């Protein structure tokens, strides 16, 4: 930064003093050109207000710059705080959403398991009912077949006895008509052995 006019005048005064000669027999007192020194001082007085104003303006500008910088810094800090608060808020929302999602998944799994358990129980009940129904039907069929076998056996035995009686009468009548004719021998057939059940 260039030196101000006041500084230059002060330097010139210092140079002027250095250029002055000492009074005879003295090492501290000098001989000064009054007019030249007064001119330098007059210029110094004239320049001083302008320089003070310039410095005041610089200081004022500096304060304005500092205030602007402080305002921008405050705005940046406020924005950062707002962003941080938003991030925290978003994180809280995400945490709540994740918690609700986890609860929903747990509830869904529990409901699905309950449905599967009920379905398994219903399936087992239906299976047992079907087994009982089939067993009842087979039991009834078994009783009917047993009764049929007994009834058919009795009727078959009665039928054979009736035929045998008729045959005896016919043979007796033939022998009475022709005593020389021997009646044909008849032997009741042996009942065929029952076939083994394939289910055994």
In short:
This protein has 200 residues and is mainly alpha-helical. The chain contains 2 helices and 2 strands, in the order αββα. Strands 1-2 form a two-stranded antiparallel sheet.
Write structural notes for this entry.
The protein contains two helices and two strands; from the N terminus they run αββα. The protein has 200 residues and is mainly α. The chain is 80% helix and 2% strand. The protein has a two-stranded antiparallel sheet.
Return Rg in Å. 70 Å
Anisotropy-based shape: rod-shaped
Distance between the terminal alpha carbons, to the nearest Å? 124 Å
H/E order of the elements?
HEEH
Mean pLDDT: 77
How many distinct beta strands? 2
Structural class: mainly alpha
Indicate the low-confidence ranges by residue numbers.
195-200
**Helix proportion of residues, in percent?**
over 70%
